[in-house]
Amino acid sequence: MPGKTKVLERKPLSIAERTYLPQIVTGLKTTLSNLFGKTVTREYPEQPPPIPDGYRGVPTLVKDPNGREKCVSCQLCEFVCPPKAIRITPGLIEEESEDAHVEKGPEEFEINMLRCIYCGLCQEVCPEEAIWLQNIYSVSGYTREEFINNKQTLYELGGTLPDEHLKWDKKKSAEDEGNPHH
User: Fold this and answer.
1) pLDDT (tens digit, 9 = 90+) per residue, 20-79?
2) Which of 17, 99, 123, 180 has its CA 20 to 30 A from that of 59?
3) Phi then psi for 145, rounded to 5 degrees?
4) Counting beta carbons within 10 angstroms of the beta carbon of residue 60, is it exposed (0 to 12), middle (13 to 18) or buried (19 or more)?
5) CB distance 71 to 154 below 8 Å
6) How do strand 131-134 and strand 86-92 relate by DSSP bridges?
7) What is the Cα–Cα distance from 14 to 20, expressed in whole angstroms?
8) Is the dihedral of CA 164, 166, 171, 175 positive or negative?
9) What is the separation, in whole angstroms, between the first and last Cα of the chain?
10) Cα–Cα distance between 174 and 182 in angstroms, integer?
11) Which CATH class is domain 66-158?
12) Quick one: which H or E segment has residue 121?
């Protein structure tokens, strides 16, 4: 029959259960085993936690081995960022510069770490390998502005990474490729 309620009979508590002694003894047993057992406390920051493989840390900008900016302001990282934490203002590279063949570079580049969800999509989509996730796990500050990393801060955090592509070197002309003595 639908709608009929089944009543369960509850057995009365014993004297020990009414005084909560079994529960207190169980709690004290756990406390004492931890008190005299192996120490599991880590003295942070002197003993940093181990960083697991595949950890996606703070996104930063990196330079090539020659110290040049790798970012070409394609803005793919800005478009792919789910929380819209990246903001890029593209700028032109002057024609007199030795890197004029690159055409564009970031005038401003900001990553709001309060918005960043550490998904790693920015690193995956970057065609120039200019944005890189570093193994930085402790980010702290006193104001919201301290969590907005500008271009200079991003390069300080990122540093220089080895690059076997050397994309910034000028392309060889057809004459240079045909003549190995150049």
Assistant:
1) 888 899 999 989 988 887 877 788 888 888 888 888 889 999 998 888 888 989 999 999
2) 99
3) -65, -30
4) buried
5) no
6) unpaired
7) 10
8) negative
9) 96
10) 12
11) alpha beta
12) helix 121-125
Tokens 């057809």, residue? 174
Tell me the per-residue pLDDT of 46-56, one tens digit each, with 9 for 90 and over: 888 888 888 88
| Strand ranges in the chain using DSSP code E only, listed in sequence order | 58-61, 86-92, 104-112, 131-134, 148-149
User: How many Cβ atoms are within 10 Å of 12's Cβ, its own excluded?
Assistant: 6
Q: What is the pLDDT of residue 65?
A: 85
88 by Cβ neighbours in 10 Å (0-12 / 13-18 / 19+) ranks as buried
Residue 71 near residue 130, CB atoms below 8 Å: yes
pTM (predicted TM-score): 0.67
Specify the DSSP class assigned to residue 147: G
Give yes or no for a contact between 85 and 112, defined as CB atoms under 8 angstroms apart. Answer: yes
Between CA 29 and CA 20 the distance in angstroms is 14
Domain edges within the chain? 66-158
